[in-house]
Amino acid sequence: MLYHSLENYKNLVSFENAVLKGLSPDGGLYVPERIPKLEHQFIHNISNYDIDTIAMNIIKPYIGKSIPEDFIHNIICDTLNFPFPLQKIHDNIHVLELFHGPTLAFKDVGARFMAGCLSYFSKRIGQNVTVLVATSGDTGGAVAQGFHKKPGIEVIILYPYNGISSLQEQQITSLGDNIFSVAINGNFDNCQKMVKKAFLDKKIQKKYLLTSANSINIARWIPQMFYYFLAYRKIKMMGNTKELIFSVPSGNFGNICAGMMAEKMGVPIKLFIASTNINDTIPRFLKYEKYHPLPVKKTISNAMDISDPSNFSRIWNFLYKKNIFQLKQKLFSYQFTDKNTLDTINIVWKKYKYMLDPHGSIGYLGLRKYLQEVKDSSSRIAIFLETAHPIKFIDEIPSSLRGEIIAPDILKKFLSRKVKKQKISLSNDFNVFRDWLLERR
Ligand SMILES: *Cc1c(COP(=O)(O)O)cnc(C)c1O
After folding, report:
1. For residue 415, what pLDDT is reported?
2. Domain 83-106+222-406, what architecture?
3. Is-above-0.90 flag for pTM?
4. What is the distance in A from the centroid of ligand 1 to the CA of 253?
5. 96-117, pLDDT tens digit by residue?
6. What integer pLDDT is reported at residue 267 of this predicted model?
């Protein structure tokens, strides 16, 4: 399989190249040249296969000869070694929990998979790779954990000083070894700008083979398809043959975009609901057919505080070829306020004893809203994705409920770690960061 940028369909590159580059030099996101369709028999009998076999079948065509098969298999086993439980909450509404990985959020899967691929490429080309990433919280933790001790790779994470939760900071700064963290005296935008500048700097490029690890990288994006296949497998195992509906709490739209690709590969999904907070560019786009991002607003579901979602261009230009009619049949989108989010956390706990995090709460709300609108709900299996463990966002959860949240064992392990010496603080002046980068080794 080859990849091209959304800006230029003729210039084809290998999986390896697309992963090492992250973003195409022309500024476009990489997409596969075609979407492989899986055999109907395979999808039909999916509950007979184990998880690793399914993941191999999905991912193999996308990697082609860039990585040998036994290596891909190892990467998959490392990536998917925690559970993805599907539970019924009430009626036909189910939750798919994606937070059982080491940093308690769904980004663990993409980060671990990408780390495995990069480590293989670094060895093959005989060069160390430096991953440079700016984070507003969740990405940094997942990347730090996923890339920790991977041979041939070092990771430099920029995060806003005092701008992330103490738990998130702990996840980024306590590993050490090949993970370096830089607290920037500024906000997330400052961090992101510095990273972008570093990628364009000739002197830095000469010294480092730089790559990024945000969700525009295909190695982080594509493995997210697994969730949708695994959910379908579980539904089949429960003896169900009904069509699925997914509601995905969406920020940069990488996760939902992977789901929409899984549907094109053959998973019988009736439609998707992109559930957002008040950063509602996509709900407005589907309603008014105008793409008009507004300044980002802060919310309690802060991993989704994004107003110009990068991956939406993959859905619009690539998966749906700018066909608004077809897109509107497969994609619904609704936005919800912080008040809606908190009220729902309360109600769902009181009625069903299930604790939502703010992102999952928005996913649940999206399902409810859709089901109320269409009214033929009973024949479908409705699933929302719970993208983070509620303890990660405990400060946002109503104080009366905080005592009900049970800390998982992984968290206790993390909290007992000390901040390592690979943590420094810098001002948000790019030249200071640049000097540090050029002098540090
Ligand atoms: C990153 C993140 C999201 C948004 O996912 P996208 O793929 O960017 O749409 C939702 N919830 C949580 C907890 C996240 O960390």
Report:
1. 76
2. 3-Layer(aba) Sandwich (3.40)
3. yes
4. 8
5. 999 999 999 999 999 999 999 9
6. 95
State residue 284's pLDDT score. Answer: 98
**Mutate which of 98, 255, 356 for ligand 1 pocket (most atoms within 8 A of beta carbon):** 255
Overall size of the chain counted in residues: 441
Structure token digits, residue 348: 């769902």
Distance CA 204, CA 328 (A): 44
CA–CA distances in Å: residue 237 to residues 147, 185, 231, 245:
34, 51, 10, 17
Q: What separation in Å is there between the alpha carbon of 410 and the centre of ligand 1?
A: 20
Please give all residues whose beta carbon lies within 6 A of any atom in ligand 1, as ranges: 105, 107, 138, 215, 249-255, 303-304, 359, 387-388
Domain extents for the chain?
83-106+222-406
Interval between CA 118 and ligand 1 midpoint (Å): 22
pLDDT at 378: 64
Atom 1 in ligand 1: residue holding the nearest Cα: 303
Cα→Cα distances 366→92, 219, 354, 369, Å:
14, 28, 17, 5
| Residue 85 to residue 99: CA distance in whole angstroms | 10
Tell the residue nearest (CA) to atom 8 of ligand 1: 252
**Residue-wise pLDDT tens digits, 183-194:** 999 888 789 889
Per-residue pLDDT, 212:
86
